Amino acid sequence: MNLESLRDYALALPGVTEELPFGPDTLVFKVMGKVFLLAPLDSAELQFNAKCHPEKADELRSRYPDVKPGYHMNKKHWNTIFVNGSIPGDLLFSWVKDSYDLVVSNLPKKQREELAAGG
């Protein structure tokens, strides 16, 4: 995984937009206006923050040394993942999708229906 493949994957998910609301150094991906993925553009190695169920977040942190509590985020619900080859790419992409799904599941019903309808 590299930044381009992470970006392509995130933007292929329904209803996703990318923004730079925190300045030019942090790429933010949102679904229906809600953040599900952040990637700093100024770090030496690729890393990203993804939302996660608290129990799963703890499990991932204990299992993978390159999964840390979310930097500048609610550490109960967010992980920072360092991408350096120690974690398979398909697993990294699945965590991005899990983050997306978690945010979508918490959207109001009307927004979930709009998203499902392709809006």
Automatic annotation (TrEMBL):
SUPFAM superfamilies: YjbR-like
Molecular-function GO term, any one: DNA binding
This protein's UniProt keywords: DNA-binding
The keyword DNA-binding belongs to this UniProt entry's keyword annotation: yes
Species classification: Bacteria, Pseudomonadati, Bacteroidota, Cytophagia, Cytophagales
Protein source organism: Dyadobacter flavalbus
Protein name, entry field: MmcQ/YjbR family DNA-binding protein
Cited Pfam families: YjbR
PANTHER family cross-referenced by the UniProt entry: CYTOPLASMIC PROTEIN (PTHR35145:SF1), CYTOPLASMIC PROTEIN-RELATED (PTHR35145)
Classification via InterPro entries: YjbR, YjbR-like_sf, YjbR/MT2646/Rv2570-like
